[in-house]
């Protein structure tokens, strides 16, 4: 009897696979670049399965956490950041290509499951888990289970409206939280400040061109203590906090766990985020504190959670 399952994290840049034991430990892992056609993506997953099973043979099941809205049949219905996946039958295609029983879920749901089972929300029943990267993903954990909604599309928190300003989101709608508070949004705010003559250090990191400033340049300059970059980051953290407080007022979580690439900013992000968040929470002096913490499993959370899905966790 095998005591591990396979987990795949399918994003717009990389496909990653791991053989994961029942304690969340990674026994073997591989990665490849994400191809730009669906059949090539499926073929790449099948190749990664062959490669990882050379070390860990006979996997009983495979879980996939993928970008996009995934229905209960394992069809990716919509994925604004990975168009090759839209309306594609991921579960049946991967099962046919690998011969391994497969389950498919949204990548943020998979990461949340990993943090609840093995990470920063371990043992907690109520949690909000955000994936703050190029975009914003999220998952709601209620009574220890990931909330899925009527069709599997619940907790698309990046597309919850936080302003009527005409700032376009990747999905095409204006004013969504992802348009205001994602890593891409930090880049946009940085370019605006640089074009107005500020943000000299971040502009230098971007090769001297204000139009080339991205979120990572603002973040690096802020971590080096640059006052201008810290001001942009504070403004951006305010938008992150606006969404967190709105969601916390609705959900009353025990904790908010932040995963995704932006969390590598550490306290440069978390300190202003907590400060702005407290000021927006209903009755903050009259309720238990809701902490905002960094995810513990880092970039492996998606694979570890997908492997948990494959062994029946929801
Ligand atoms: Zn949107």
How does this structure look, described?
- It is built from 10 helices and 12 strands.
- The strands form 3 sheets. Strands 3-2-1-4-7 form a 5-stranded mixed sheet. A 5-stranded mixed sheet has the order 10-9-8-11-12, sandwiched between helices. Strands 5-6 form a two-stranded antiparallel sheet.
- α1 packs across α2 and α5 packs antiparallel against α8.
- The model has no long low-confidence stretch (mean pLDDT 95).
- The site of zinc ion (ZN) has 6 residues, from loops.
Order of helices and strands: EEEHEEEHEHEEEHHHHHEHEH
Beta-strand residue percentage: 15-25%
| DSSP summary, beta strand count | 12
Kindly report the spatial arrangement of strands forming the biggest sheet.
3-2-1-4-7
Shape: globular
The major β-sheet equals: 5 strands, mixed
Produce the secondary structure layout.
Blueprint: E1 4-10, E2 14-21, E3 26-33, H1 38-53, E4 62-66, E5 69-70, E6 76-78, H2 90-98, E7 102-106, H3 107-118, E8 127-132, E9 136-142, E10 145-146, H4 177-181, H5 183-195, H6 200-205, H7 215-223, H8 227-251, E11 255-259, H9 267-278, E12 291-294, H10 301-310
Parallel strand pairs: 1-4, 4-7, 8-11, 11-12
Antiparallel strand pairs: 1-2, 2-3, 5-6, 8-9, 9-10
Helix pairs in contact: 1-2, 3-10, 5-7, 5-8, 7-8, 8-9
